[in-house]
Amino acid sequence: MSERLVVIGGDAAGMSAASQARRRRPADDLAIVAFERGQHASYSACGIPYLVAGDVDDVDALIARRPEEFRERQQIDLRLGSEVLAIDTDRREVVVRDAAREYREPFDQLVIATGGTPARPEVPGAVLAGIHGVQTLDDGIRILGYLERHAPRHAVVVGGGYIGLEMAEAMLRHGLDVTLVDAAEQPMRTLDPDMGALVALALEREGVRLRLGERLTGFAGSGGRVTAVHTTAGEIPADIVILGLGTRPNSGLAAAAGIDVGSTGGIRVDRRMRTSVAGVWAGGDCVETLHLVSQRPVAVALGTHANKQGRAIGINIGGGYATFPGVVGTAVSKLCSHEVARTGLTTAEAEAAGFSTFSVVTESTTRAGYFPGARTIKTKIIAERTTGRFLGGQIVGQEGAAKRIDALAVALWHGMTVEEMTALDLSYAPPFAPVWDPILIAARKAAEKLAGD
Question: β-strands 280-282, 109-112: how paired?
Answer without folding.
Answer: parallel
